[in-house]
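Bumping with the actual sequence this time:
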Amino acid sequence: MNTGRTTTVLISGDSDLVQAVLAAAATRDSAVATVSQPSDIRSRWRDATMVLVGFDLAATVAGLALPPRSDIYLLGPAGTEDQLAAWSMPLRATVITLPSGSRWLAQVVSGSVSSHGPVIAIVPGAGGVGASTLAAGLALAAQRRGPAALLDLDFLGGGLDLVVGAEAEPGWRWDTLRSATGQVADLSGRLPTVDGLAVVAASRTDRRDPPAEAVSAVIDGLARTGAVVVADVGRAASPARDEAIRAATRLVTVCGQSVRSVAATTAVLADLTDRRVDVVVRTDRSGAIAPSAVADALGCSLLASLPTLPGLTLLADRGLPPGRLAGRRWARLCRQIIDQLIGPTGPSPATDRRSR
């Protein structure tokens, strides 16, 4: 057992896992104490700033009936996802699977990861401006930096799982998550994933809006792991949409360059005058209004202007995520937008639109 005062304690007797954690800590010049005996676990539990629990001792820790605490992470190698998910609720812990989560683990042990990830709501201002594709592109861009999730709350659309090619992937969808309330267990390993991105979408047979309570629980459960959550909220009013907007740390609307698109977006934003909203303007050769003029008309900050890329439609039809083949330029632009939205380590503060 390592001795000495430390802020992070690893509870594990698995040599491979201990080695992986110590290696991650070494890259960030962080100290980690390892314990495996029940008496040592009890003595370190309360005072540690952070506790890492290995898959091999998760049942032991749960059986000790230790007092509740925050900043607990469950660690395990690929193939232990079900085991980790089963213990995440009893221990109220966030799951990190290795080696895919090695970068995230390094951020955790160094204290550089936010305890609550940013939530970005994409609010389409008009139909046909590519809000769903933008949501998918931003979520995939965020996933390149760490954990990220894409939420589909546009239940009149065709499904974001189709946009990113996750329609055939196994995992929980909104029909399973409709009953979620309060603090949900870590959803890692339970959701459909593509290119490492977790996706929460409606099933093909049940496209009912989930209750607001379920939306709140799922967003909180994902953001609590430090994941960037990107939600496509759609244009149709619903309690689910309202809850996603309420939970968002950043709101982004998407508008075209036509007079009709600006008028439609103005109507959508009428109920959001107390929130900061940034605008992404979709441009094309026939655009009548300059992007800066669109932003001025809406009273929003211009986040970016994105060209219409015909290749994205082809990618979606093939079930390929934006960012591949013809979408490489799009992916680069999405990464630039993510950098503006959440910065190098976390979300930017939300402010009143009227204060700018």
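The tokens above came from a reply further down the thread. Confidence is low (pLDDT under 50) at residues 1-5, 345-356.
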